[in-house]
Specification:
8-stranded parallel sheet, 231 residues, metal ion binding, Ribul_P_3_epim, Ribul_P_3_epim-like, globular, binds zinc ion, binds D-xylitol-5-phosphate, 36% helix, TIM Barrel, 19% strand
Length: 231
């Protein structure tokens, strides 16, 4: 099978101590650090001209750049923004490793986007919200500039600590059946009680925020999830 990558979501960490929180997760056995980049949607604004993607505002390239000075870890950046193209250059410079954008905002320009991401030395990925059909990402896996990972959202993007949506597993299963060696990531509500559903559906990259940071023994949660994927 494909290698397990356990990626704690730093959104659940103490942002005021980001470097030490990152190191703590790596010491606990994390493979990647998942970085949630959000653009602060405002409903009134959004109805008119949709300048934002999610109703939360988190971090951007300056924080990635600061963290990069403290760690060599793979920084798995998840772009919940309406204009991912604008972030390619700054995130590349900042030292991001993976750049995962949303298909909902990139239906027309994904070829250019993927090309630019690769030219900045980052690994391109595409994500989709729970309501978006899996067929929408197939062209991005098979096109001239293919993405190297698909992130299937298992909650509505925007916040940590939400409940895992089991119905999203149909998409993971379909994807795994079609692409046996693709990196398939899941994000939202993953932890000891939901990991087996995701792993048996075929996910190999596991993002987990509240379940890892909220546990008394984060290392134990990480190793339990790894075992489930590797079984
Ligand atoms: C949600 C983010 C997730 C979030 C996951 O929009 O993309 O990465 O931090 O947090 P948990 O694991 O708590 O659901
Ligand atoms: Zn995320």
């Amino acid at each position: 099978g494909v290698a397990a990558k356990i990626a704690p979501s730093m959104l659940s960490s103490d942002f005021a101590n980001l470097a030490s929180e990152a190191q703590r997760m790596l010491d606990c056995g994390a493979d990647w650090l998942h970085m949630d980049i959000m653009d602060g949607y405002n409903l009134n604004y959004c109805l008119l001209h949709k300048p934002h993607f999610v109703p939360n505002l988190t971090i951007g390239a300056p924080v990635i750049e600061s963290l990069r000075k403290h760690t060599k870890a793979y920084l798995d950046c998840h772009l919940m923004v309406t204009n991912p193209l604008d972030y390619v250059e700054p995130l590349g410079k900042a030292g991001a490793s993976g750049f995962t954008f949303h298909v909902e905002v990139s239906r027309d320009n994904w070829g250019e986007l993927v090309q630019r991401i690769k030219s900045k030395g980052m690994r391109p990925g595409v994500s989709l919200k729970p309501g978006t059909p899996i067929e929408e990402v197939y062209p991005l896996i098979e096109g001239e500039y293919p993405v190297e990972m698909v992130l299937v959202m298992t909650v509505e993007p925007g916040f940590g600590g939400q409940k895992f949506m089991p119905e999203t597993m149909d998409k993971v299963r379909a994807l795994r059946k079609k692409y046996p060696s693709l990196d398939i990531e899941v994000d939202g509500g993953l932890g000891p009680s939901t990991i087996d559903m995701a792993a048996s559906a075929g996910a190999n990259c596991i993002v987990a925020g509240s379940s890892v940071f909220g546990a008394p023994d984060s290392a134990q949660v990480i190793s339990l999830m790894r075992k489930s994927v590797e079984e």
